[in-house]
Every structure is written in C-alpha cells, then in structure tokens.
Amino acid sequence: MLHASDITFAYGGAPVLAGVDLRAGSGGVVGLIGPNGSGKSTLLRVLYAALRPHGGTVLIDGDPLAALPGRDLARRVAVVAQEHPPELPVTVADMVLLGRAPHRGALRGYTDGDHAAAAAALRRVGMRAHADRDCATLSGGEKQRVLIARALAQDTAHLLLDEPTNHLDIRYQHEVLRLVREIGVTTVVVLHDLNLAARYCDHLVLLDAGRVAAAGPTAAVLTPGVLEPVYRVRVRTVDDGDCVQLIFQAVSGG
Ligand SMILES: Nc1ncnc2c1ncn2[C@@H]1O[C@H](COP(=O)(O)OP(=O)(O)OP(=O)(O)O)[C@@H](O)[C@H]1O
Questions:
Q1: What is the CA(39)–ligand 1 centre distance, in A?
Q2: What pLDDT sits at residue 191?
Q3: In total, how many domains does the chain have?
Q4: φ, ψ for residue 202 (rounded to 5)?
Q5: C-beta of 86 in contact with ligand 1 (< 6 A)
Q6: Which domain holds residue 103?
Q7: Is the CB of 99 under 6 A from ligand 1?
Q8: Is the CB of 210 under 6 A from ligand 1?
C-alpha cells in the first residue's frame, strides 16, 4: 500500500504540487494523468523519495517513506523513471541483474536464483534473445523494455512507472501494460495516452496545475465532463466492451 497525503512541493519558489492525495494498494494499477507540466513526474519522484515533499507524508505499507533506508526502499519499490541511466558499457543481462542488487547479501555474488529471475524478466519483455547485447547499442524501445525488465527482476510489491510506453511500438505499449496488470503488483503509472489508461488502470488521479482535479475509478474520471475543462479538447467516449475509449477533437481557440 502506497499512501501519499496532502503533498505540497515547489521547485525554488514556484509551487508545483498543492494538497495532493494518492492511494494505491492491493495490487491495483493507479494511473497518474494530466496535461504537460501538471506535476505528474514530480509527484512520482516524491513517491520514490527522489524529492522530499515540503508538506504532507508518504507511507509505504504504513511506514513513513522518509525514514526508510535506501536498500529497504529498493526492496519495496521499483522505479522506471524518465531519466535513463548513463550509457555504461554493460550487457542487457547485467543491466537486468542490477535489479537483484537490493536482495544480495553484502559479501555475496548473485545467486542462480538471481540469474533465473533476471532471465525470466527479460523473457517477459521479449528481450531474452538480446541478453548479450551492449545496452548502448539498443533502440529507444528496446532500452525501455530492458529497464522495465530490471524493475520486474527487483521483485518488489510496488512499481512506479513514468511514461513506460514512451518509445514503444503499439504492440509493446499494450504488452507492457498488460504485463503490469498481470503481475498484480501495486502500481502507479504516469500515462499521457488516456486510451491506454482506460484499458489498463483501475483508478486514476488527474492532476491539473499541481492539484487533484479528479480521482476515482477509471470510468468515473474518463468522462467528457471531467476531461474537457482540464485538457481543453472536445472528448467523445465509445464503449469498447470491457472499457471506454476516447476520441478527441481540438477546440478552436482552446
Ligand atoms: N528541476 C526542476 N526545476 C524547476 N522546475 C521544474 C523542475 N522539474 C519540473 N519543473 C516544473 O514543474 C512543473 C511540473 O513538472 P512535471 O515534470 O512534474 O510535470 P509533468 O506533469 O510530469 O509534465 P509532462 O507531462 O510535460 O512530462 C512544470 O512547470 C516544470 O516546468
């Protein structure tokens, strides 16, 4: 269970988050949506302690995030951030193995179990055949899938993803989000594509200029009445059987 309450944050003097609440639990997928600059990535960084909020608290399974040692945090929360790590000459297999580091004993090498977990994670994102490649030679989408595999190999109860479908072709956008659903890990995912959010998220938090404009079950948030004033586009909904899908139209002068 991840529970952020009344989060405020400012870069320098400029407020970016004000009174934001977010709750994610029971293996559900919470989508964090909102226009450019609304504070989604900043909130995610607060959730994995890369930024310390100026007000409010974040609890992980009831424990204050601020009090958790880094290694303990890494055993509980895996992150795929937007900023990619520097391009070191490291193989795909070794990059994914890094996900096992928080579970490794201080003086022990990686175990057979660690190697098996890394290989399984690579297989799940369709990158097993690339295990021996140098990460620096991968395409943007392949790199993204390796970073997702590393997070899966970390085997945490919580997963935080910042636009994980960036760079992915349409097949892998769906594969990755379907996988996130299937593994049943409590997930917070920043998404721009509201149709992916409609299909794969249980709950949504819609940010607008650093405040929660709407939060609740996905179908309750993805309505024209909620979305149109925030995104300033015209929205139509189409019932696609198991979820709603959205069609957008620009509003002239909007
Ligand atoms: N390091 C920083 N220093 C100063 N301002 C920042 C910094 N990072 C982000 N901001 C500002 O904070 C606001 C929120 O940014 P953030 O990246 O959280 O938004 P976002 O909703 O994730 O945006 P996008 O959808 O464009 O990725 C923006 O106005 C941005 O310019």
A1: 6
A2: 98
A3: 1
A4: -85, -40
A5: no
A6: 2-250
A7: no
A8: no
Ligand 1 neighbour 249 (Cβ under 6 A): no
- The model's pLDDT over 37-80, given as tens digits with 9 standing for 90+, comes to 999 999 999 999 999 999 999 999 999 999 999 999 999 999 99
Q: Report the separation in Å between the CA atom of 182 and the middle of ligand 1, taken as the mean of its atom positions.
A: 31
> How many A from CA of 207 to the centre of ligand 1?
12
Q: What is the dihedral of CA 156, 158, 161, 164, to 10 degrees?
A: 60
Q: Is the CB of 42 under 6 A from ligand 1?
A: yes
* pLDDT tens-digit readout, 215-242: 999 999 999 999 999 999 999 999 999 9
Predicted confidence at residue 253, as pLDDT, reads 65
- The pLDDT, as a whole number, for residue 131 is 96
- Secondary structure, 3-state, the chain: CEEEEEEEEEECCEEEEEEEEEEECCCCEEEEECCCCCCHHHHHHHHCCCCCCCEEEEEECCEEHHHCCHHHHHHHEEEECCCCCCCCCCEHHHHHHHHHHHHCCCCCCCCHHHHHHHHHHHHHCCCHHHCCCEHHHCCHHHHHHHHHHHHHHCCCCEEEEECCCCCCCHHHHHHHHHHHHHHCCEEEEECCCHHHHHHHCCEEEEEECCEEEEEEEHHHHCCHHHHHHHHCEEEEEEECCCCEEEEEEECCCC
CATH number for the domain spanning 24: value is 3.40.50.300
List the residue whose alpha carbon is closest to atom 3 of ligand 1.
Answer: 11
Q: What is the pLDDT of residues 116-128, one digit of tens each?
A: 999 999 999 999 9
